[in-house]
Design brief:
Blueprint (H helix, E strand, L loop, with lengths): L13 H54 L3 H13 L6 E6 L5 E4 L1 H6 L8 H8 L5 E5 L8 E9 L6 E10 L1 H36 L1 H12 L17 H50 L5 H32 L8 E4 H18 L3 E4 L6 E4 L1 H17 L6 E8 L3 E8 L6 H4 L23 H11 L3 E7 L3 E9 L24 H7 L8
Parallel strand pairs: 7-9
Antiparallel strand pairs: 1-2, 1-5, 3-4, 4-5, 6-8, 9-10, 10-12, 11-12
Helix pairs in contact: 1-2, 1-5, 7-8, 8-12, 9-10, 9-13, 10-12
């Protein structure tokens, strides 16, 4: 008894991997979002600070212009402005267009020496180009940096640059806000990861639930319960497609198992009959008190016929099994189909005459196909053998051959017992024979048409059947013509002689009795 399959480790399960992927994607998204928001918020706070500096500087310079170069009062105003209670610590320095310091606040004075000149490049850009400059500058003994804003200030009347104003803003409040924001984000990430993990696990469990149902149902299906099918969720998603695919596969397996069981039962039945006959005749000969040599000779001859019958069935079974396994190699060489049909017609004229039938064959157009001559010979011999066996005396059997641009069609028609519509779909099945044709004198093992269809398929063709019960049947073999060749070009001698390796016609006539029929 086989043990149930071992479950994989949790980290190898699809549910774990989906949860992990989902959580990782959510974490990556959160980190990117946090970085983006942090950068945007820092930039927004810096922009607000610059606006605040611009407004405060405007108020200061309006006062400076009113004092009209009274630098003592201006210096007092600068000290007052920088000493006020502000959220941001501000310091000011006022220079002329030559870069000379005119006034500066106490905080600015402590941070930058009063004699420290302004950068000539910055002075040029501000005075000449009229540009404002912002830069982040570090200062000794201060934990945070400063924002230094340098901008020109023009006389309202002359519109000429009169002063250069430098403003220092201590960035500690902004840095505190940034640190608090980062701290909040870092504290939220573990909680978010935990929530994402459980949400991803629940989502993966819900999404993979149909897989579990499919797996449980499929595990219960065995060779004895192939009629069961997987239940679809009817959502039309990929899991329904998987269920449909598996159901189709189970259906094919069920059909294969059914055919295998039927094939084995029919094979056993076909082989049991000649074995029973052999055993019965041997028992009769053994128990007979009359030791007449003629009787033993008759029993042995009957046994040989049954041996031949079993050998023929087993040979056909072996051929079909090898064909199913793809181990039968079908030759590909030019074959004059018209000559092959002519040889078969000449052979079956003898059988038709003995059965009091009329056989009409030809004339056939010269046509060449690529294939295996021996297999094609067997294909048409099986069809002719069926036509002769199942056509009553006085009937007619005909063989015709027509061609078009791409195919050649060979039709074997008879005026025999015909095949009902229900049986027409089954006659190519193995061991299938039409009711009323099961006698040992006419009915074969039911493998001939199966082999014929396989030969036609192996040559890229097909067999078509048209039949009316009680009026006769027509089997049409359609084979492809060689691509890029003229179907009328002969590759065999036209004198009617068989190519090397052709069996003796007398031998073929004798072998007709061993041909099988599928009706």
């Amino acid at each position: 008894m086989s043990s149930p399959p071992r479950k994989p480790a949790f980290y190898r399960r699809a549910r774990f991997r989906l949860t992990l992927y989902y959580t990782a994607i959510q974490l990556l998204f959160l980190v990117l979002l946090a970085v983006f928001v942090h950068m945007r918020s820092s930039r927004s706070m810096l922009t607000e600070l610059e606006k605040f500096i611009r407004d405060d500087t405007s108020d200061l310079m309006a006062f400076v212009l009113d004092l009209k170069d009274n630098w003592v009062e201006i210096q007092k105003r600068l000290d007052f402005e920088s000493s006020g209670e502000r959220y941001y610590e501000l310091s000011f320095r006022l220079l002329d267009t030559q870069g000379n310091v005119k006034a500066l606040s106490r905080a600015f004075r402590e941070a930058v020496p009063a004699t420290g000149p302004i950068d000539p490049v910055v002075l040029h850009d501000v005075v000449v180009e009229g540009e404002s400059r912002q830069e982040i500058v570090p200062f000794p003994n201060r934990p945070c940096d400063y924002l230094l804003v340098t901008r020109p200030w023009s006389d309202p009347q002359t519109k000429q640059v009169r002063y250069v104003v430098q403003t220092l803003a201590y960035l500690e409040p902004l840095e505190k806000l940034s640190r608090r924001f980062r701290k909040n984000l870092i504290s939220v990430i573990p909680l978010f990861v935990l929530i994402s993990w459980f949400a991803g696990h629940a989502l993966a469990r819900k999404v993979l639930k149909p897989i579990g149902q499919i797996s449980r149902t499929a595990r219960q299906i065995t060779s004895s319960s192939l009629n069961e099918r997987l239940v679809r969720s009817k959502t039309g998603d990929e899991f329904d497609l998987l269920a449909d695919t598996l159901n189709d596969m189970i259906g094919r397996l069920e059909e294969s198992f059914t055919l295998t069981r039927k094939f084995a039962a029919d094979a056993a039945h076909e082989l049991r009959t000649p074995l029973t006959i052999l055993k019965g005749e041997a028992e009769v000969a053994l128990r007979s008190k009359d030791r007449d040599p003629a009787m033993y000779e008759e029993v042995l001859e009957s046994n040989i016929r049954e041996y031949d019958r079993m050998i023929h069935i087993i040979t056909q079974l072996l051929l079909l099994a090898q064909a199913d396994a793809g181990k039968v190699v079908v030759g590909r060489e030019p074959v004059r189909l018209d000559l092959l049909l002519g040889e078969l017609a000449e052979t079956f004229h003898v059988l038709a005459d003995s059965a009091q039938l009329t056989l009409e064959a030809g004339p056939f157009p010269e046509v060449v196909v690529n294939g295996d001559r021996a297999r094609l010979h067997e294909l048409f011999a099986n069809l002719l053998d069926n036509a002769v066996k199942y056509t009553p005396p006085g009937g007619r059997v005909s063989v015709t051959c027509t061609t078009d641009a791409e195919h050649v069609s060979v039709a074997v028609a008879d005026t025999g017992i015909g095949i009902s519509p229900d049986d027409q779909t089954k006659v190519f099945g193995r061991f299938y024979r039409v009711e009323g044709s099961r006698s040992r004198n006419t009915g074969g093992a039911g493998l001939g048409l199966s082999i014929s269809r396989w030969i036609a398929t192996a040559h890229g063709g097909r067999i078509e059947l048209q039949s009316t019960l009680g009026a006769g049947s027509t089997f049409t073999v359609v084979l492809p013509l060689p691509v890029g060749t003229d179907s009328q070009v002969a590759t065999e001698p036209a004198n009617g002689q068989a190519p090397p390796g052709t069996e003796d016609r007398g031998q073929r006539t004798e072998d007709r009795g061993q041909k099988t029929d599928d009706r």
